[in-house]
UniProtKB/TrEMBL annotation:
Mg(2+) binds at V538, H540, V543. Its EC number is 6.2.1.1. This is Acetyl-coenzyme A synthetase. The lineage of its organism: Bacteria, Bacillati, Actinomycetota, Actinomycetes, Kitasatosporales. One of its GO terms (cellular component) is cytosol. The gene is acs. Residues 91-471 form the AMP-dependent synthetase/ligase domain.
Length: 651
């Protein structure tokens, strides 16, 4: 973010107090801040008590082996029981859990009672495949009800799941299956995207060529497309799951039993397996969903328009909303299929009251124009949320006006895969919102903005965002790599969690998130590391060296720009042929289409410091078409001139 944008942000002086009607009925009031400040452990214990525990905990927080936290130690509970059976026991079995909308327009309604039967059958099916508590199950699925069912079935039998986003490649899937040693994979023939069936099973087949330990693949038939079949390993969901009894008695697991592993990009090429556990995670996702979205389970229709393959889907499509017994919308496809009003048609059809999505979607809708949402009845909406990347004030204002009818609060929620749950966000019945600011830490959460030396910055200044106290939904470790957990998050500022984000405190002390301060890019709300893309590029035979930067992009937040040096023979050929297309496709194949570079520039040399470090800052200047910053630490300052000469006309 440039200094100019920064000062624009801080000149933002529009204010939006909570609507009186919402404030009067709000689930959470300002008192929560005081209660949590007085005793945060007592505060979280009160929120944990909103769940059903088979065994009470003996200690709220055990931080004796910091930074390895244990929450609600000694307590036992079952996550699926809390998300499903508990509501059926309370007589709410007929309440809709999901209104599912397939991209081609087919629909399914699942009540909590339906969900209980389906999850029980799937749990029995997994048991019949030999899955036991503690075994890892990989889930590689489109956005269909079976995805939620599979996750809850795993939770029910204590088998941690790792959901791999369906847009990831076979290669990415292989790496994740191997890293957590999953023995069973749940997938589908394919799903619908952009008006066509998009296959998933071939990627599983390709990944499993190098995963000999996977013994079973459970396949949902969604699109009906042809699939290759490995006898003895592959089994259809409709054969195995449907035949199972709909009874299954859930066992209570320890509060610290692993619930899932979610892989996310860090600053190295190897994604990190973020481990979340049971009691603390469910407590905080359930409470934050209740507080930040002010959900009224009897009347609200809630929609997180994100993919279940990301943490947002885990916490705010699956675990949070279900723990609160809420009715949700689940949509399979893309926002412009079959037309650009698809989301608004869904809001109108199901009378959606709360919508949660990423700024990149909002900016795309802005580009498509006001007339599209204006053609639908969006009066049911009462609250809007944003997540995944900084939301610029204009996008915030547009969201509130064009979608929220100038009446709905917009909550900008900051959190991460690692935090598990929302951390910094307005409370809609309490906070006066400022367009572009996440405001302050939620009750029970402690954050600070610090300088290089770790000292809190004064109001009006910027620095690094840190979390100063453990929180219930925090990651417990990086799967299989405790040292990396300590090094990545707890060593930059000892005793505090380093989020990797820059932030600024305004004159009121409110927090404005400014984006990553490390080599992680944020493209359409997806975290992608520069090194991950670089190693994909250099794995192509024609590439000698690559440097990748995230350049500001008005729609996607950041766009991936790659600078590559070709190998000798390829470089000669490169004069006639443009290898960029080939390399873009290669990255998509290695990581997934979301990582495909927006632009690839073939260069003769890369700018390096005397110690051999690539100066990405200068490449970013080029990618963003700016005057070059300080070049004095370069070994050879003519390198930059040579790169500029190679730029295509007009860039
Ligand atoms: C960014 C997504 C600004 C941030 C839940 C963070 C945000 C990363 C916001 C985590 C926000 C998320 N404002 N930036 N409201 N929310 N981010 O792990 O850089 O996919 O570190 O989790 O997204 O991305 P992740």
């Amino acid at each position: 973010m440039t200094d100019e944008t920064l000062s624009n942000l801080l000149r933002e002086d529009r204010r939006f107090p909570p609507p009186a009607a919402l404030a009067e009925q709000a689930n959470v009031t300002a008192a929560a801040y005081d209660e949590a400040a007085a005793d945060s452990e007592a505060f979280w214990a009160a929120q944990a008590a909103r769940l059903d525990w088979a065994e009470p905990w003996t200690q709220v927080l055990d931080w004796s082996r910091a930074p390895f936290a244990r929450w609600f130690t000694g307590g036992r509970l079952n996550v699926a029981d809390n998300c499903v059976d508990r509501h059926v026991r309370a007589g709410l079995g007929d309440r809709v859990a999901f209104h599912w909308e397939g991209e081609p327009g087919d629909t399914r309604t699942l009540t909590y009672a339906d969900l209980k039967d389906e999850v029980s059958r799937a749990a029995n099916a997994l048991l019949s495949l030999g899955v036991r508590a503690g075994d890892r199950v990989a889930i590689y699925m489109p956005m269909i009800p079976e995805t939620v069912v599979a996750m809850l079935a795993c939770a029910r039998i204590g088998a941690p799941h790792t959901v791999v986003f369906g847009g990831f490649s076979a290669e990415a899937l292989r790496g994740r299956i191997q890293d957590c040693d999953a023995r069973v994979v749940v997938t589908a023939d394919g799903g619908y995207r952009k008006g066509a069936a998009s296959a998933l099973k071939p990627a599983v087949d390709a990944a499993l060529e190098e995963c000999p330990d996977v013994r079973s693949v459970l396949v949902v038939r969604r699109t009906g497309q042809d699939v290759a079949w490995t006898e003895g390993r592959d089994v259809w969901w409709h054969d195995l799951v449907t035949a199972q009894p709909a009874d299954h008695t859930p066992e209570a697991f320890d509060s610290e039993h692993p619930l899932y592993i979610m892989y996310t990009s860090g600053t190295t090429a190897r994604p990190k397996g973020i481990l979340h556990t049971t009691g603390g995670y469910l407590t905080q996702v359930a409470w934050s969903h209740f507080a930040v979205f002010d959900v009224k389970p009897e009347t609200d229709v809630y929609w997180t328009a994100a993919d279940i393959g990301w943490v947002t889907g885990h916490s705010y499509i699956v675990y949070g909303p279900l723990a609160n017994g809420v009715t949700s919308v689940l949509y399979e496809g893309t926002p412009d299929t079959p037309h650009q009003g698809r989301w608004w048609e869904i809001v109108q059809k199901y009378r959606v009251t709360i919508l949660y999505c990423a700024p990149t979607a909002i900016r795309t809708f802005m580009k498509w124009g006001d007339a599209i949402p204006a053609g639908y009845d969006l009066a049911s909406l009462r609250l809007l949320g944003s997540v995944g990347e900084p939301i610029n004030p204009e996008a915030w204002m547009w969201y509130r006006r064009a979608i929220g009818g100038d009446r709905t609060p917009v909550v900008d929620t900051w959190w991460q895969t690692e935090t598990g749950a929302q951390m910094i966000s307005p409370l809609p019945g309490v906070s006066t919102c400022k367009p572009g600011s996440a405001l302050r830490p939620l009750p029970g959460v402690s954050a600070e903005v610090v300088d290089d030396a770790g000292e809190p910055v004064p109001n009006g200044s910027g620095g690094y965002l840190v979390l100063t106290r453990p929180w219930p939904a925090m990651l417990r470790t990086i799967w299989g790599d405790e040292q990396r957990y300590v090094d990545t998050y707890w060593s930059r500022f000892p005793g505090r969690y380093f989020a990797g984000d820059g932030a600024k405190k305004d004159e009121d002390g409110d927090i404005w998130l400014l984006g990553r301060v490390d080599d992680v890019m944020n493209v359409s709300g997806h975290r992608i590391s520069t090194t991950e893309v670089e190693s994909a590029l250099v794995s192509h035979p024609i590439v000698a060296e690559a440097a990748v930067v995230g350049a500001t992009d008005t729609t996607t937040g950041q766009g991936i720009v790659a600078f590559v040096i070709l190998r000798g023979d390829a470089a000669d050929k490169g004069a006639e042929e443009d290898p960029a297309q080939e390399l873009r496709a290669h990255v998509a194949k290695e990581i997934g289409p979301i990582a495909r570079p927006r632009q690839i520039l073939v260069v003769a040399e890369l700018p390096k410091t005397r110690s051999g470090k690539i100066m990405r800052r200068l490449l970013r200047d080029i990618a963003e078409n700016r005057e070059l910053g300080d070049v004095t630490t370069l070994t050879d300052s003519t390198v930059m001139d040579a790169i500029r000469e190679r730029l295509p006309e007009g860039s």
